[in-house]
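Full entry
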Amino acid sequence: MRIALIVAGGTGTRMGAAVPKQFLLLAGEPVLLRTLRRFAEAVPEAARVVVLPADQHGYWQELLDGWEDVPTHQVIAGGATRLASVRRGLEALAGVADEVLVAVHDGVRPLVPGAVIREAFRLAEERGSAVAAVALKDSIRRMQGSGVSVAEDRSAFRLVQTPQCFPLGVLRRAYAAVADDDPRLTDDASVVERLGLPVTLMAGAESSLKITTPEDLLIAEALLKARRPGA
């Protein structure tokens, strides 16, 4: 058994939209629905759990009523932070065995390639973890305060994406040991790392952008139009 835990707790503040960003249309289809479809196509055998703020459940259902062939999924009420939402998703899996692999994914990364999803599960099964990431293209500098900064070797850094895949038992132990509002913990890899466990990075995809701003939506539209079928 495998599980896709898709977390979508956005409010659309940075997007400046009237509805949360996960519900905006991307090439005519809601962003979150596209994300859900990507997982259903890539790993059809996996169970799918969507974590949404409780006050968005009704809107999500209304939105889905206008679409056919919606992948089956369970909807769980999220929390005030991403960590809280993932925790709620894990709690919903109370009857699932610790060894089951769970891929946590941002609901607003709808262009994640199927190959990345499948590799995350494969690598996590082999090494106990798999976190998608891509190399940096731009130069980076570390701020030291008062406007002073120093150059860093960008080859030593990666931009972290999702999916981030771990055995359910590892995620349970990791989340039980941290607070939901810790600003230093921005993803599942950083939470698991707190246990002292190694985190295995794997190749993500430049196209798997996180839709946060209006510009991101425009780029995603262009990428979707240029994408080869099945990519």
